[in-house]
């Protein structure tokens, strides 16, 4: 008689216990998602929609987004005058350095928004500048655009310009008044004949230009500076410009050569809350004027001063404690000899470099040159340099640091395109 078959030792499958996230942790988890994902998550349930719409959550999400910055790449997709695209591109993706052609997307065209330039970027909001010209005058306006959610303001801040040359006499800057939670545009109007600079402020929500105290110095030459180099840079509720103590007298196209004393330079900082100025001196290590003008920028949330040293090195100084001149520290010194392995200077005397972003995580500096169509990725750890590989012709000096946010939800901006769809540029 045969034995009965042995009973199987296999146990019935036990269903995995569902992961339960405590209610108080849900906002923390959601805050790491990007805007596109969160817009979809609003539809999951009423509680999530409520969380994602809460002002405190929006602040938390903005803080998290700052850890994943983008650069707004300014490019021309056609030969039509003023037909430019602005594409937010992740810094992490740029550092990966893919071979890529950016999409020709209607949502990124400034011409379709009746604008020409990006004045600045702050908390996920881009400030755009548009104008129309006649033989006698030019009408100028602003628009505020959040690319992540596809919302844009109506035309605001209209005024008439009857002075020749937009970049000759005007400089715009964009920032955030932390004390009143108001976005502000600052306009510098340089009167070369009187050697004075009028300052006007436009507050988003009030739709009016106000005149404040004149600029206490002379902004670096409008006429000879590359667009983007001497715009006011935003940092922690202030706008900051590199300027000159005394007046600037231009001589032909080589007016910059007239400045030969480092003591002429000063950094003017405008507090957007009090609308008052303070003057900061450049680092003491800046002791010689180069044929190429210095500049200021923001890297790793610190004000930085950049200068050329004897046409042999590019030096970046960092003000570790904002407003404390004694805290200037040399951050980087980059040898042109190293850069020349990857870059042939067309005009070494006037070749100008500008840092766009420094990644603490990867140790990579994104550096651009006014004579190159590609940016450079400089690795601080091994001093290696590679060019970016984007096939489009990018106007790198016009690039701005950008972070995704829901800021426009609080500003009642309109939907730009009813059929809006978030385009992934990579």
UniProtKB/TrEMBL annotation:
<dbReference type="InterPro" id="IPR017451">
    <property type="entry name" value="F-box-assoc_interact_dom"/>
</dbReference>
<dbReference type="Pfam" id="PF08268">
    <property type="entry name" value="FBA_3"/>
</dbReference>
<dbReference type="InterPro" id="IPR050796">
    <property type="entry name" value="SCF_F-box_component"/>
</dbReference>
<dbReference type="Pfam" id="PF00646">
    <property type="entry name" value="F-box"/>
</dbReference>
<dbReference type="InterPro" id="IPR013187">
    <property type="entry name" value="F-box-assoc_dom_typ3"/>
</dbReference>
<dbReference type="InterPro" id="IPR036047">
    <property type="entry name" value="F-box-like_dom_sf"/>
</dbReference>
<dbReference type="InterPro" id="IPR001810">
    <property type="entry name" value="F-box_dom"/>
</dbReference>
<feature type="domain" description="F-box">
    <location>
        <begin position="15"/>
        <end position="60"/>
    </location>
</feature>
<protein>
    <submittedName>
        <fullName>F-box/kelch-repeat protein At3g23880-like</fullName>
    </submittedName>
</protein>
